[in-house]
TrEMBL record:
Keywords: Endonuclease, Hydrolase, Nuclease, RNA-binding, tRNA processing. This is Ribonuclease P protein component. Gene3D superfamilies: 3.30.230.10. Consists of a catalytic RNA component (M1 or rnpB) and a protein subunit. Residues 120-130 have a biased composition (Low complexity). Belongs to the RnpA family. It is an enzyme of class 3 (hydrolase). It comes from Azorhizobium caulinodans (strain ATCC 43989 / DSM 5975 / JCM 20966 / LMG 6465 / NBRC 14845 / NCIMB 13405 / ORS 571). RNaseP catalyzes the removal of the 5'-leader sequence from pre-tRNA to produce the mature 5'-terminus. It can also cleave other RNA substrates such as 4.5S RNA. The protein component plays an auxiliary but essential role in vivo by binding to the 5'-leader sequence and broadening the substrate specificity of the ribozyme. PANTHER family: RIBONUCLEASE P PROTEIN COMPONENT (PTHR33992). GO terms for molecular function: 3'-tRNA processing endoribonuclease activity; ribonuclease P activity; tRNA binding. Transmembrane segments: none annotated. The gene is rnpA.
Amino acid sequence: MPAELAVVDRLRKRRDFLAAARAERANVPSFLLQGRDRHDEAEPRLGFTVTKKNGNAVVRNRMRRRLREAARLVMPQLGRSGFDYVLVARGPCLDAPFQTLVRDMERAVSRLHAAKKAKTPTSKTPIAPADGGRPA
């Protein structure tokens, strides 16, 4: 196995895929990126989901290989320690130029981590009128 691939481990258990599905998301045309912080310092892990609605086994495996190669190029630089990432393939993943796929991956990872930072608790509770009636 090449050295670059050792940086990102694979997700193998269903519970890890389900946990990532409940976490942050970033949409791009060719795939959906789901990511969750495990709150540890272990290396990032990556999982792939390609459903049967995308095509037969040959098509699904080709989509998975393209996503895996794009992730191999992007994740060592942009992936964070302690994160699980799941890539859910969409139809355009198969026909998009590879450089577009790589740019989508970079954009999705950046969006995912930007969304994580932006979700800080704020007090945006509406203030009820003093008389208990409806606001004007």
